[in-house]
Amino acid sequence: MTSIPTQTLTEALHWRYATKKFDPTKKIPAETWAALQQSLVLAPSSYGLEPWKFVIVDDPATREKISAAAYGQRQPVDCSHLVVFAGRKNMDAKDVEKFITHTAAVRGLPKDSLKGYQDTIEGSVERARKGGYLDVWNSRQVYIALGVYLASAALLGVDTCPMEGFDPAKVDEILGLSAKGYGALVLGPAGYRAADDKYAGLAKVRYPAQDVFIQA
Amino acid sequence: MTSIPTQTLTEALHWRYATKKFDPTKKIPAETWAALQQSLVLAPSSYGLEPWKFVIVDDPATREKISAAAYGQRQPVDCSHLVVFAGRKNMDAKDVEKFITHTAAVRGLPKDSLKGYQDTIEGSVERARKGGYLDVWNSRQVYIALGVYLASAALLGVDTCPMEGFDPAKVDEILGLSAKGYGALVLGPAGYRAADDKYAGLAKVRYPAQDVFIQA
To answer: N or C: which end of chain B has fewer CB within 10 A?
Structure first.
């Protein structure tokens, strides 16, 4: 495995910003987009349950509807590729069964050999349900995928804009997500910044290291 | 800005796995660790509020206590660098005031010019508090940082293991986080896999693309 130089990483993460205005004429090349999709496929999640769907919205009319549900913000329309990050709602034992069946198949194991693991995961799911944090737990996993995607995009020279400013119920309705058992959490438009996006030139605001790190 | 080849990204993300056994003799070089810390500093968050603390735990005795709070798992002890990702609890108008003051200073703006922005953010914070999802909202931001960190580490050839399997109340107590207004969410040990970590060789389990992507 070839590592990248540290400077390449920090430069890319400095270059990244929440792009307010995408250039609608610039499209992400197919090979680059395929790699970004792979970053989502390969994102880690608790137990590997992948409690998510990534909706890739190409249809212009659907993008306009999502823009309207995002109070008229234009990134969902002007970006090259629009991903709606959705989280599993009300996960249950069937999700775990599906995961165990898939794990056994990928690893060439008898399913029975994973029974203890299945019980452990089901226990975690039921504890989360009884504790009232099942959907919260799964929503956090989606944000891991978001972080992986944003960092990956920056390293590939692709601009993004994580967006929470939208009406989730409307986006769920537009995309038919509720019926599938998922709920929209965050939008991840990707593409290329417009030459006149004034936000690109602003000084990056971050607290100094001593404010965010605690040594123990 | 120099982009990396798509293959470099996908290889690194394939190489990454949740390391169960770290080699305690291998330490992350200072320059590499500094870049990983930068990935945390530069991680995006809603409005840029950075509702987090990253606790870097070096003290061996403290690491042992955290291992005990994680049901005896050894990664917190054996890793090179241990980060405890903590989220802001019960954020209020003072957090927003601090953020606006800092933004004005960094961008050389009169603070008054950001009054509308400040009101918008305060409105979001108060809506989240009344809606009962304030801490959830902030916890999700921490998982963006986690995702950026895990991807960054992989690209730098550093192993990690995101861990939610611990007693948060105990870790909060060990690190004195509650008094600071933060709560531990996830552990992020980093270092290098032991030569005999059997998990390194297992086939990666991921649902096929058609299971996680929806085209719309």
So the answer is: N
